[in-house]
Design goal:
Radius of gyration: 16 Å
Helix content: under 10%
CATH architecture: Distorted Sandwich
Shape: globular
């Protein structure tokens, strides 16, 4: 099992009326891939503990893990990871999901989330979008966080500032 524990300090959210248009939220970077204007926020409160990493499937129709699972507490607040427009808030295959369109073909989805928002709502990074619910493959107290770029799932770590560099230290 893979576990990653991070701590962070939450930055102040921008007022919704100061947000750029959704198509301006991300752009192609030097690599030619989409890169966020700034790292996204974690959708649940610290401490952050990733309990299942992103595992890209070899083909679009084979097994994989199309997001990351993050430990949380039941009914904890879930926030928008970046500014955008709620594109979906409802049930999918028996579990509550909230999806946010961040513009430029980038969509995030978090589940299970009891939504506090409706489709069409504009959200700023850090705005409350719901609370941790139950359902899906996560056990109680866990959320699944996925990101798609032009319809293809990518690792959310690309938008969260990447994986921290591992440092191996000698033991006695």
């Amino acid at each position: 099992m893979f576990a990653l524990t991070l701590t962070y300090s939450a930055a102040a959210a921008e007022p919704a009326d100061s947000l750029p248009a959704p198509t301006a939220l991300v752009a192609a970077g030097p690599s030619g891939r989409y890169e966020p204007a700034e790292p996204w926020r974690w959708p649940v409160p610290a401490p952050i503990r990733v309990i299942a990493p992103f595992r890209a499937p070899p083909t679009p129709y084979t097994a994989g893990h199309r997001g990351i699972d993050i430990a949380s507490t039941p009914a904890a607040a879930v926030v928008a990871p970046a500014p955008g427009v709620v594109s979906f808030a409802g049930m999918v295959a028996g579990r509550p999901v909230v999806a946010i369109d961040h513009g430029a073909g980038v969509v995030s989805a978090i589940e299970p989330v009891a939504a506090l928002v409706e489709a069409g709502a504009r959200v700023a990074a850090g705005d409350a979008i719901g609370t941790v619910a139950t359902g899906g493959h996560c056990t109680a107290g866990c959320v699944h966080f996925g990101v798609r770029v032009d319809g293809e799932y990518v690792s959310p770590f690309l938008f969260l500032g990447g994986l921290p560099r591992a440092v191996l230290l000698p033991t006695d």
